[in-house]
Amino acid sequence: MKIVINLIRNLLGYIIIALDLVTRGAKKKRPPEQQQEVSDELKHFALYQFAACPFCTKTRRAMYKLNLPIEKRNAPEGSKHRQELLEGGGKVKVPCLRIEKEGTVEWMYESSEIIRYLEKRFA
Ligand SMILES: N[C@@H](CCC(=O)N[C@@H](CS)C(=O)NCC(=O)O)C(=O)O
User: Fold this and answer.
1) Which residues are registered as beta bridge partners of 97?
2) Which of 93, 97, 115 to mutate to test the pocket of ligand 1 (most atoms within 8 A of CB)?
3) DSSP E strands: which ranges in 59-103?
4) Under a CB-based contact definition with an 8 Å cutoff, are residues 47 and 74 in contact?
5) Mean pLDDT score of the chain, rounded to an integer?
6) What strands, in cross-sheet order, belong to the sheet with 71-74?
7) Residue-wise pLDDT tens digits, 92-118
8) Where do the GST N-terminal domain residues begin and end (predicted)?
9) pLDDT range class, residue 81, cuts 50, 70, 90
């Protein structure tokens, strides 16, 4: 039964990914130097995610629209990224944005909060 539920969940997840791909439109354009600055800043960011998670798709969509090349780290069962997420953030829940600044690390959960933060900082 669990297999069937996971299958349906993944199928829906991939349908949402496909819908996102065809409706996402254009990404934000910045002058090259400004985009380079943003990209450099984003080297301290990583998004822990599952490929077919709808909350992750929503977050990736916002990242795409804001033109934010943030490293994505898949965290399936048994992966080292899942272990990092558990040990660093305290729970396995995605999406989670890892933000490193001045030697400290923040683990931000909740897609809406992550998107709000990125929009405020990079829009
Ligand atoms: N309210 C959260 C929901 C996130 C959520 O439910 N994520 C699921 C995946 S779609 C999860 O991480 N579940 C834990 C697990 O599957 O181990 C958000 O908007 O980010």
Assistant:
1) 47, 108
2) 93
3) 71-74, 96-101
4) no
5) 97
6) 71-74, 45-49, 96-101, 104-109
7) 999 999 999 999 999 999 999 999 999
8) 43-123
9) very high
pLDDT of residue 40: 97
Structure tokens of 104? 């400290």
Q: Which residues contact 44 (CB under 8 A, 6 or more apart)?
A: 99, 100, 101
Looking at residue 43, the DSSP 8-state letter turns out to be G
* Most informative mutation of 47, 55, 113, 118 for ligand 1 (most atoms within 8 A of CB): 55
CA of 54 to the centre of ligand 1 (A): 9
* For range 69-77, the mean pLDDT: 97
